[in-house]
Amino acid sequence: MALVVQKYGGSSLADSSKIRNVAARIARAKDCGSGVVAVVSAMGDTTDELIELAEEVSDSPDLRELDVLLSTGELRSCALVAMCLKSAGYHAVSLSGAQAGIKTDDQFGMAKIAGLDTERIMAELDGGKIVVVAGFQGITPGMDITTLGRGASDLTAIALAAGLGARRCEVYTDVDGIYTADPRLVPRAAKMDEIGFEEMLELASYGAKMNPRSIELGMVYDTPIVVASSFSDVPGTLIHGEADMNRNVGEIRNRVSGIASDTNVAKITVQGVRDRPGIAASLFEPLADVGISVDVIVQNASDGGTTDLTFTVKRDDLRRAESVVRRVSEDLGGRGIVSALDLAKVSIVGTGIQDAPGYASTMFRALADEGINIEMITTSEIRITCIVSARQVGEASRALHTAFDLDAPS
Amino acid sequence: MALVVQKYGGSSLADSSKIRNVAARIARAKDCGSGVVAVVSAMGDTTDELIELAEEVSDSPDLRELDVLLSTGELRSCALVAMCLKSAGYHAVSLSGAQAGIKTDDQFGMAKIAGLDTERIMAELDGGKIVVVAGFQGITPGMDITTLGRGASDLTAIALAAGLGARRCEVYTDVDGIYTADPRLVPRAAKMDEIGFEEMLELASYGAKMNPRSIELGMVYDTPIVVASSFSDVPGTLIHGEADMNRNVGEIRNRVSGIASDTNVAKITVQGVRDRPGIAASLFEPLADVGISVDVIVQNASDGGTTDLTFTVKRDDLRRAESVVRRVSEDLGGRGIVSALDLAKVSIVGTGIQDAPGYASTMFRALADEGINIEMITTSEIRITCIVSARQVGEASRALHTAFDLDAPS
């Protein structure tokens, strides 16, 4: 029997009428004759509310206990969805991450899936049941509850789709697919019918609302992912391994598939540290130790034996990062640090960008024509990213969307 | 090492400041040198809110799924309390019912504890940790989550106290002990210092706010229970096996230890059914089948071959009970049914009531002197119960409290 794995996000489950809608959609998939596994997120803003509650009882909530607390959000959703399906006459069963066999390491708050034990799910599917699984959570070998990181219900769904050999993983959310840019910033952004895993990975890492680890997992196991709206029947976007090749045949002259943007960016510059081997390590190791991820890093050319080193962090991490960096900078004999909060990343993403000339210059020219100053630049195989003022992220996105011929016909 | 099991009810955990208060009390017990296991209920009205949510997605929520849903309330509490203890520098760990080894049968919604596997709790206690256990829940042999029935966090606590060989089980709630009557009805009700298991069982079954199955469990395992307030340090009431004997020595002439009252009472009278063997069974079996508990039953003397049969049910069950009974009554050739909603039970409870003359007559006289009509009467070894109008439950309770010399000195 064909098996479909579906995943429903928190906004699709925000209240009881939305839960009934999700149950009806799951039932429809079952009616089509497939085996169905549905992975659900916590209702609406539940996770944020629970974090708030945790912060009311503890200045720095213990990660093991926070995982127990947060895991209850998805448990509630899966019980409610299964309940709703049963009262509509379907055979259904809810399973927690533990019951669904999602085995993880014990890195609370950001656990990695270490294995899948699909015995229980297979037994329930064999019994004709729709299986509703609590996303975002797993269990350690010592039987402690873990969570997989924010937005990681996608990860649960794709891991199950891969592990169960499903035809595809359908991710239902409050938007009807992946767009060539953020439609709130770029009114002429267009929904893509399909996109390749690698491009999607860059878009996800650089602003699109999908968990990058999920895309990676889909890529590794070659499990196609469909992103679509839970509120309509419009076809969504297919993320798969063959998209690039197909498209490149027809559209060889435009390899930019989308514009990613992200305003959660702050930067720190460490000024005038002695330019010798190991300074980057002595700066970034203590940041990693306190769990701060550094994104774009630029080290200026040396000037009289000293160097300026600039890097970006998430805006929320800035204050903590400053205090770590200030201390290290003093040890390194630096002149001090300066920082800025109001920055954004704008990226163009497309397979082959690196190999083909002209993309970078087109990008810089389009930004210059709008009077947008580029603070930092970074590139990958299939992406070019500029750090600009957060104020200008809309203008920048629109300019690039037009420059790379992505505008939908108006 | 001495071990104390504490239990905190929902009203003691209603918000984050109350959770901090509970954590501080648990920490104090740990500071006194005891091993501590704390069992917690869901915060405030969580369970009612979850039931409401379930009813929004299903007309008759599936019991297995309802148990998954409801169990999350206690999980949240235990994570928050453990988190709060840890951030105050204590070693603590939260455990779900499953992790705490509470094994049950698979009667969802009203599961019975089938056994305790104390290995994990013992390991955590041996490691010096305060163990915070989610009350009210367990796990079946097939690894499905169950709940033990409303108010059954007490049951979890007393089962753990018995299974772990704790000195006693401390039940913390929003009142400071067990009273000789409901203080809202009887201003001169007095807190009891101690009471025997059997009397407490009758008080609990007939109105006092404690889970009768918990008292029974304490009685079977001879585990003393202290009921006290989580908001003050006033000593509570000790429920134990030796209370009766001790008190009876000094107070041989007054064996009434308390007045129980309950206004959740409705009655149904089935009129003029043929008086033959088996009519009670044919009436009450269909009620049991739909899960309605029948309480007081009175069958009138036969009159010309027909009989009237009157019984009480919980007020919420009246409409459902009527429709079942109406059907059966027609099958039995009865004249019809009449019912009344606004009734109450008032009981006197005390060891030895049955053996000693005069208690019943004193009770009936006290009610008569207040002009209170008795609708039905029922008795047990240590209890006499009268069904009266709900309007008069306060007057009735006060009159009995005075008649049996229970009034606190004013």
Major sheet of chain A: 8 strands, mixed
Q: What is the mean pLDDT of chain A?
A: 90
Oligomer: homodimer
Strand order of the largest sheet of chain A: 3-6-2-1-9-11-12-10
Radius of gyration of chain A using CA atoms only: 23 Å
Determine the strand fraction of chain A and express it as a percent band.
25-35%
**H/E topology pattern of chain A:** EHEHHEEEHEEEHEEHHEEHEHEEHEHEEH
In short, what is this structure?
2 copies of one chain form a homodimer. With 410 residues, chain A is an alpha/beta fold.
Overview of this protein structure:
The structure is a homodimer of 410-residue chains. Chain A has 410 residues and is an alpha/beta fold. The first copy, chain A, has helices spanning 16-31, 46-57, 63-87, 119-126, 153-164, 197-205, 212-221, 243-250, 279-289, 318-331, 359-369, 393-403, and strands at residues 3-8, 35-40, 92-95, 102-104, 113-116, 130-134, 137-139, 145-147, 168-173, 194-196, 225-229, 237-240, 258-274, 294-299, 306-313, 336-349, 376-380, 383-389. The first copy, chain A, folds into two domains: 3-249, 3-Layer(aba) Sandwich (Carbamate kinase); 259-403, VC0802-like (2-Layer Sandwich), CATH 3.30.2130. Chain A has twelve helices and 18 strands. In chain A, the strands form four sheets. The first copy, chain A, has an eight-stranded mixed beta sheet, sandwiched between helices. Chain A has a six-stranded antiparallel beta sheet with strand order 14-15-13-16-18-17. A two-stranded antiparallel sheet of chain A has the order 4-5. The radius of gyration of chain A is 23 Å and the shape is globular.
